[in-house]
Structure of DUF155 domain-containing protein:
Amino acid sequence: MRSIVDSSLTRPNVDELNCRTRYCVTQKRFISYNCLQEVSGQYIVAVALGESFDLSNIVSDELLAKNYLATCVDEVSEEGLHFVARGKYDDINAKNICEFFVFGDGVVVFWGVNKAEQNFITGLLIKHVISPYKSLLVTEEADSLAFLVVDEGKSRVSKNCFHLDISQHNCGFRDTSSILERYAFSHGMAASVKVGVWESQLSSKAEPLAAIAEALANGVIPWKRHEALRQTGQFAKLRHSINLNCDLLDTDFYWERENLESFYYMAFHHFSINKRLKLLNSRLDYCAELVSIVDRILCDRHASMLEWMIIILIVVEVFFDVWHFSASLDGKSSLKRISIAEE
């Protein structure tokens, strides 16, 4: 398990979350969380609090354990936890889901949890975040989607609402299979939030590059080699996080669970994650190429400067050699004249 690096970040206020719903491919605009109130049903809310969670510390958190019952989603997977408030399902309507999933990559996904309780839960979880995100980033990149529990048809996303079919499960939404289905959909939604964070991080890193491109067009190089190296490292780090260091994009868990994989890809397709990842990587390619161009120019300029320094040193050395040679010739001529005069 990971260890805690920093838990001092101010807890984000879930009441202020400006959750947005990312539409499927056919719709390009976003709507705010407030607009979703027109859709009947409860909500799924996904929030990225940081780079990762220390899941072992979360499980051993006494205050969390006092209020919520935690279980591993599956004995094979170590990157997801399922939480239900103690006694929450004992005396409420069978179709009223209230739970949350915690993913090792720093994302928590709430199902039917009111804003006040979301606020309370994030306050407990923020202590176990590794490399927390800034509160503004957390609030801006939160996602929400309405959901309804139904007893017929197939589980599907329709009209920006997830219809969860529980007719196939003996214990309704309490059934382990139903929980795994919600986990799989939450997994895809958590991936969408993480991609949103990467998009925001790339935008903030790429914004200064516009001035760099303008400066290059005017024949000016505003960076020094250290800054070019730092920028190269930042983009390489972001690319590594996207392509190699995120379990939310890993589908190994579903290799032998094709029925669950469909729920993961249901969210994956609804939030257009594949297209967003391609666009993200293409933008990263452009930014990395621009930084590489600046770095090459700086290297060439540095190499050219070294060449000129060597040329100048050679010229100076030749000058002194000529001077010494000339001085030695003058000395020999003087001695010759003196010897002739003495004779």
Observations:
- The first strand starts at residue 20 and ends at 21.
